[in-house]
Amino acid sequence: MSEFQAYLQLGFDHITDSNGYDHILFIMALCTIYTLIDWKKVVILVTAFTIGHSITLALATLGLVSIKPEWVEFLIPITIVITACLNFFYKIPKSSFSQIEPSSKSRYPLALFFGLIHGLGFSNYLRALLGNEADIVNPLLGFNIGLELGQLIIVFIVLSIAFVLIEIVKIQRMSWINILSGIIVGMALSLILNNALFRSMTGMAEN
């Protein structure tokens, strides 16, 4: 296996790892208001997120940007809570084939901005893998593509479940959005609480 392939696999495994489910929750929160019929809108949204995390992933890995890991670990669940809470205010468009609805336009710059924060989280993991390697271009590219492949699979799964429940099972679309968003908010708040307790216990141990 080449170095590129190895880092591609690592990137894919990192985004799909159930033990580090914060990034999965964010992707789910982004996609909750959509179904398979909205795939074009989702591609634009995910591309905005991709651009954001690619920028900071590259900058942080190159050592041009540095933020304490504990701040990144705190901010990522915050991005999840905000994104999921916005879903509660979503207004379903009159037509599935209409243009981008006003109630979701703000999601695109938000996905880009929050992508910058998530890129810092990815970079902490990638820097640990790279160690003292001089050439980081291939690892960086492979890791980023691996992230995107895993991300697309998550998106496809969420949209497919939404399509089945809404179009076949006939669950009300807003019920699906509210229930899933509520679950995501609860899990993200749990992450925030766990991080706060961990920092508190670590601080007590140091003292």
UniProtKB/TrEMBL annotation:
Pfam family of the protein (one): HupE_UreJ_2
Keyword Zinc-finger among UniProt keywords: no
UniProt keyword annotations, A-Z: Membrane, Transmembrane, Transmembrane helix
Transmembrane spans: 20-37, 42-65, 71-90, 110-129, 149-169, 176-198
Family matches, as InterPro entries: Put_HupE_UreJ (IPR032809)
Name of the featured protein: HupE/UreJ family protein
Organism this protein belongs to: Dyadobacter luticola
